Amino acid sequence: MTTSLTLATAPVVRRWRPRPGAIVGALMLGAVLLLTAIVPLLPGFDPMGQDLRAALLPPFADPAHPLGTDALGRDLLSRLALASAVTLGMTVLIVIMNAVLGSLIGILAGYYGGRLEALITLVSNVTLAMPVVLLLIAICAVLRPSAGLTILVLGCTWWVGYARVTRNIAAALRRQDFVVSPLTQGADSVWVLTRHIVPNVWPHTLIIAATDVATIVLITSSLEYLGLGVQPPVPSWGSMIFDGQRHLAGDPWLALLPGLMMLLAVGGVQFLSQQFTAETRGGLLRKGGMR
Q1: Which stretches are transmembrane (predicted)?
Q2: pLDDT digits (tens, 9 = 90+) for 90-105
């Protein structure tokens, strides 16, 4: 008897009760997403336009620039909105790549075992031992730094956690009667994987992905701060903090505003991921976990 996708998730939806932390997290993340979605629709949206005569305007000093301007006279509200879209977009792509790649590798290793499992374990250990920042610096020494390069490197080096969890689950499931029985009756491995293994693996993958989002935001922002991610003039949280630190003495808002956006996004995701993790695990336990 198997725990299907519907059975595993339905109790979570029906019995979901928001905790205070989840409400706070939704408000924090919602503020960032609202800014990202609405500001580009405003008439004065121009993240690239420069006006040196209006440089370093403080917040709320000019109606045309509600959050002020940077050293080149560029509108900070517009740049924060674009930076949020860039950083969060990169984060989502990286998390999806890692979740899909890691889960696929882990399922294959756990289900087939043998030499394939030994090979994948070796590759996982080597990948885990590589410092991501140093690897990206080495690659950027040969290739030009870009957002695409950052997505590719992080998307191919952060999957080990997914692979280890899904490998253990698939290895435990391959010996269960509901997996062995269809094989003895002529079912192929693809049918067994898609009908019995994946539905029991994907909730655990979502738990890891939910907690990984905040980590990837911090990593991508750190790389952008070092100049290894999105390149000027396209803004990102990390690059805006780097540019703003030069004016901390007189104009601290240049670094504080993108830092505040990062705080809201990371904090909101962390609060929501805790709620999601608790509810998902509770749903699995109520249905007896993997059967």
Answers
A1: 21-42, 80-111, 118-139, 145-165, 205-228, 253-272
A2: 999 999 999 999 999 9
In angstroms, rounded to a whole number, what is the distance separating the alpha carbons of residues 161 and 40?
Answer: 36
The answer as to whether 23 is a domain residue is: no
Amino acid at 56: L
Amino acid identity, position 6: T
Question: How many domains in the chain?
Answer: 1
pLDDT digits (tens, 9 = 90+) for 209-232: 988 999 999 999 998 998 888 998
5 lies in a domain? no
Whether residue 185 is contained in a domain is answered as: yes
Domain span holding position 127 = 86-286
Here the tokens at position 27 are: 């408000």
The pLDDT tens digits of the residues spanning 1-24 come to 334 333 333 344 445 567 788 899
